[in-house]
Write a structure and sequence with these properties.
The chain has 396 residues and is of the alpha/beta class. The protein has 14 helices and ten strands. Helix 2 runs parallel beside helix 3, helix 7 packs across helix 8 and helix 7 packs parallel to helix 9. It starts with 19 loop residues before the first strand and ends with a helix. The chain has a single domain, classed as TIM Barrel. Strands 1, 2, 3, 4, 5, 6, 7, 8, 9 and 10 form a ten-stranded mixed beta sheet that branches. The mean pLDDT is 91. Helix 2 links the parallel strand 2 and strand 3. Bound molecules: iron/sulfur cluster.
Length: 396
């Protein structure tokens, strides 16, 4: 019998069709989050795609063919758009699976969630950056967001929406990460995503973690994957960690990690995070990254490889999304690991990891440069043959 995959790959070729399309419905949002990529404003932008423009984007997403990509409507706060449910219903009528990513504002009510569900949305993603109201609201810049997020989370689950919880990993919340994990496990979520901050938008003002701290976080998140479904956003080296840990496990060995990992696992043990029933099967991370399975359409129709990578491959008003994704120079270059520079270019994990192109760009203005927040030294892992075989077995 074939062993379970350590890393998953989409069934179709990601050069033809993305796995995930994110559409920024608006930049309007009443919150003032410390890390906001969109530097969200309280008012909607005059050049934002209107209802017809949004429907054209969804037509173009459907044109990728079936099974279609997951279509995530984000913001800003998408609940600021009066036509949100009409747009969800339209996307659903085209056969798209639609998910919504609201902010924890007063618009996040049970009635609004019921309308979103009724219109056909299948999933909701919510941000949770602290395990208490004090911690989360300080990060989000407005009081009351934590309570509204928890109320919305519970209501969404009762209404049958799948819930993904996104946690920004910053110095601000680093020591609280095990408590957040315990909260997510207790409340229940389809997926918990650790977002490794990219220095863009207001996030440029925050002090980044070191590469060694990120390594500790990635291994801690990997441990959490034994009791709940975990992924990372802009943390592609999580796939490298998954492969390394599978090989080390087979040899009965543990990785050598830093003091942060020790503190996080000690706190997790205090909280009983790893006690009780374990997941029968770990959910392997999906091998997609900026422009390679993933595409972001901005509020004005610009097509970016990621919401954290402010370089455009074209605008949906001038050229179809399918064409920009499949043929633009920016996207085709990003799908070619042999073009990667620096450490990522020399790394044996480049095809299955490749590093965060957004973080590379944020630090160097070169989309193909090395991810500066990776602690791995290419070639240093002792079981190279086994890694090669495992990486090979994850191919479609
Ligand atoms: S050096 Fe680059 S490709 Fe290699 S593991 Fe680190 S981020 Fe990934």
């Amino acid at each position: 019998m074939k062993p379970p995959a350590v890393v998953r790959r989409p069934r179709h070729c990601v050069c033809e069709r993305p796995f995930l399309v994110i559409w920024e419905a608006t930049r309007a949002c009443p919150l003032a989050c410390l890390h906001c990529r969109a530097e969200a404003q309280t008012a909607r932008h005059p050049d934002e795609l209107d209802g017809d423009g949004a429907r054209r984007v969804m037509d173009q997403v459907a044109a990728f063919g079936r099974p279609g990509p997951l279509f995530v409507i984000t913001g800003g706060d998408p609940f600021q758009r009066a036509d949100l449910t009409d747009l969800i219903a339209y996307g659903t009528s085209l056969g798209l699976r639609v998910a919504v990513s609201p902010s924890g504002t007063p618009t996040l009510t049970r009635a609004a969630l019921a309308a979103v569900r009724e219109a056909g949305a299948v999933a909701l993603s919510l941000s949770l950056d602290g395990s208490t109201a004090e911690r989360h609201d300080a990060f989000r810049g407005v009081p009351g967001v934590f309570d509204r997020t928890l109320d919305g989370w519970r209501a969404a689950r009762e209404l049958g929406l799948k819930v993904q919880v996104n946690t920004t990993v910053t110095r601000h919340g680093l020591e609280d990460l095990a408590d957040v994990a315990a909260l997510v496990r207790r409340e229940g979520a389809m997926l918990w995503s650790g977002f490794l901050l990219v220095p863009t938008g207001r996030g440029e003002q925050l002090e980044p973690l070191t590469a060694d701290e990120i390594e500790d976080v990635l291994h801690f998140l990997h441990d959490c994957g034994s009791v709940m479904a975990v992924k990372t956003t802009e943390g592609h080296h999580f796939r490298r960690v998954a492969l390394q840990r599978a090989v080390l496990d087979a040899h009965g060995q543990r990785p050598r990690l830093g003091p942060l990992y020790g503190r996080l696992t000690a706190r997790a043990a205090e909280l009983g995070l790893f006690d009780g029933e374990r997941r029968a099967v770990r959910r392997p991370p999906m091998d997609v990254s900026s422009g390679r399975g993933f595409v972001f359409v901005s509020h004005t129709g610009e097509v970016h490889p990621s919401g954290f990578l402010p370089v455009s491959g074209g605008n949906v008003k001038d050229r179809p999304l399918t064409e920009i994704y499949r043929e633009s120079e920016l996207f085709t270059r990003l799908r070619n690991p042999s073009l990667l520079g620096g450490k990522c270019g020399a790394c044996e994990f480049r095809s299955v990891c490749g590093g965060s192109r957004s973080r590379a760009y944020g630090s160097t203005r070169d989309v193909l440069a090395a991810d500066p927040y990776c602690a791995y030294e290419p070639g240093s892992f002792p079981y190279q043959e086994e890694i090669r075989a495992l990486a090979e077995s994850t191919k479609r």
